[in-house]
Design goal:
The protein is of the alpha/beta class. The structure holds adenosine monophosphate (AMP) and 2,3-dihydroxy-benzoic acid (DBH).
Length: 535
């Protein structure tokens, strides 16, 4: 396995292979198998552009040769920062074929995150787009090129300027290596929401990620008739493989790309492309429901809406069927692995009030107290998990892994969860230092560390505040240096200058003279959050 990754112990490998969770195939077999079996079925739609399985496979094949001729070889990491455009998939399948490892950077990420990811992954190349939704990625590419020595190739979709145009990679006459990657190797590196400092990288193998996509497709009832609208950014685990696009490909369905998830754009595509399934985070559900009050599009093709990423309120859940005319499936997932779905035949209370059951019988879930003892049935505890598609360690993070995993290999999710007598799980809260802003995760420590460098800030704590729309918003609680004053636009300007993704910028600023403290003299975050909520 790639250096810097923790493999499963050999008894677990045998067990997962023996039970058929691991199919022993490369991840891109979701495409190539369908290209063999149903070459003329529609695989991918991006605006007016359409690909059958055979065409997408051919494109990935040609592109693999092109990328190989740029010098990209098996095992190397390649930063992929692409929005919901078809090239996301041709590039990803091309890299997978080569055994090169895509690192999925979110389109919202900026210099701060990108440089960090380039460094920890030792990436050799960056594949991006010219501009998207008003943002020009080429200046970002220049800063990456100037600041990270290891980046040898930069490829851009569209107007590449001084970089290599992706289009040109399709015309490079070279042949891609024919040796497929080992299914036990790392296929992709996903980003975690992170708890300490900057995002961690999550190594997912061909075997485990294929298991993730296929089993999720089963749990969601996907089949060859499925027309999946990718409304969330496909670089994220939920729309990528839970079951998302890869799950849809695995059953021969059709993926329709939605450039951004506004109701206007999405409803038009649902109507035009007869979408059957899509996935959203809770704040977008609210937006879609609201838009439905005046929107008259025909959404009758939509059968299932999956919602996950943060806790969905039961009252919101109850409005989905009446307003959107589709069923709801709740999804509780994590890029580290474990996925839970409400069963397709669950009753209304179960669908509205729970986050479902783990995908497989071999997802070993424990709910524990702070001493790592199992809590009594029905009590809330931290969810620990190991299983056939849950990682055993973050990439190159030995020290952090000591804390994030138990000695016997369980991932400590940081989520507080209750198990009902029926086996269904309910997410009740969390103990990790992350603010969940409607599904987008803000690592508290990363933002605090950046703010500490501000000349007027003496100390800072970032806390989450309850919010109707997003579930939670962030508030920077700041102790200004003597004689200094601050406002929200100036600290957000300061963060933006350092290239922080905008969803991580504090929504509020509160200036304080001192922080409430615990008996050990640490910041009492709970008391602080209560103080902010009351202010
Ligand atoms: P990440 O580790 O960045 O992939 O984020 C996964 C985290 O998102 C989980 O550990 C939960 O804290 C949160 N999450 C995901 N889905 C749900 C959900 N349906 N309800 C509540 N929290 C969720
Ligand atoms: O929040 C997540 O990371 C998430 C939510 C739902 C996820 O990774 C998933 C489903 O796969």
């Amino acid at each position: 396995m790639l250096e810097g990754c923790n493999d499963w112990p050999s008894d677990f490998i045998q067990r997962y292979q023996g039970a058929g969770y691991w199919a022993g195939k490369p991840l891109h077999s979701v495409l190539s198998d369908q290209a063999q079996q149903t070459p003329n079925r529609e695989a991918l739609i991006d605006g007016p552009r359409r690909w059958t399985y055979a065409q997408l496979e051919q494109q990935a094949h040609t592109l693999a040769a092109g990328l190989a001729s740029l010098g990209i070889v098996a095992g190397q990491r390649v930063l992929v920062q692409l929005p919901n455009i078809a090239e996301f998939f041709s590039v990803t399948f091309a890299l997978l074929r080569l055994g090169a490892i895509p690192v999925f950077v979110l389109p919202a990420h900026r210099e701060n995150e990108l440089l960090h990811l380039a460094q920890i992954s030792d990436a050799v190349a960056y594949i991006t787009v010219d501009t998207w939704l008003g943002f020009d990625y080429r200046p970002l590419a220049r800063r990456l090129r100037d600041q990270v020595k290891g980046i040898r190739q930069i490829v851009a979709v569209g107007q590449a300027e001084e970089f290599t145009a992706l289009q040109d990679c399709l015309n490079l006459s070279s042949t891609a290596p024919t040796l497929p990657p080992s299914p036990r190797e790392v296929a992709v590196l996903l980003l975690s929401g992170g708890t300490t400092g900057l995002p961690k990288l999550i190594p997912r193998t061909h075997d485990d990620y294929l298991c993730n996509a296929r089993r999720a497709a089963q749990a969601a009832g996907f089949d060859a008739q499925t027309r999946y609208l990718a409304a969330l950014p496909v670089a994220h685990n939920f729309p990528l493989a839970s079951p998302g696009a890869l799950g849809t490909f695995s059953v021969g369905g059709t993926v329709v790309l939605c450039p951004e998830p506004s109701p206007d754009t999405a409803f038009e595509l649902i109507e035009r492309e007869r979408i059957t399934h899509t996935a959203l985070i809770p704040p977008l559900v609210l937006l879609w429901l609201e838009a439905r009050e005046w929107d008259a599009r025909d959404l009758s093709s939509l059968q299932w809406l999956q919602v996950g990423g943060s806790r969905l309120k039961a009252e919101t859940a109850a409005r989905i069927q009446p307003l959107l005319g589709c069923n709801l499936q709740q999804v509780y997932g994590m890029a580290e692995g474990l996925l839970c779905f409400t069963p397709l035949d669950a009753n209304q209370a179960e669908v509205f009030q729970t986050q479902g059951v783990p995908l497989t019988a071999d997802d070993e879930v424990r709910l524990v107290d702070i001493e790592d003892r199992d809590v009594a049935p029905g009590e809330v505890g931290e969810l620990l998990v190991r299983g056939p598609y849950t990682i055993r360690g973050y990439y190159r993070a030995e020290e952090h892994n000591q804390r994030a995993f138990s000695d016997d290999g369980y991932y400590r999710s940081g989520d507080l969860v209750r198990r009902l007598a029926s086996g269904l799980l309910v997410v009740e809260g969390r103990i990790k230092d992350v603010i969940n802003r409607g599904g987008e995760k803000i690592p508290v420590e990363e933002i605090e560390n950046l703010l500490l460098a501000h000349p007027s800030i003496g100390d800072v704590a970032l806390v989450g505040l309850p919010d109707e729309l997003l579930g939670e918003r962030s508030c920077a609680c700041v102790l200004p240096r003597v004689g200094q004053t601050l406002d929200l636009p100036s600290i957000n300007g300061f963060l933006s200058q350092q290239g922080v993704a905008s969803y991580k910028l504090p929504d509020r600023l509160l200036l304080l003279r001192h922080f409430p403290q615990t008996s050990l003299g640490k910041i009492n975050r709970k008391a602080l959050a209560e103080q902010v909520a009351a202010s």
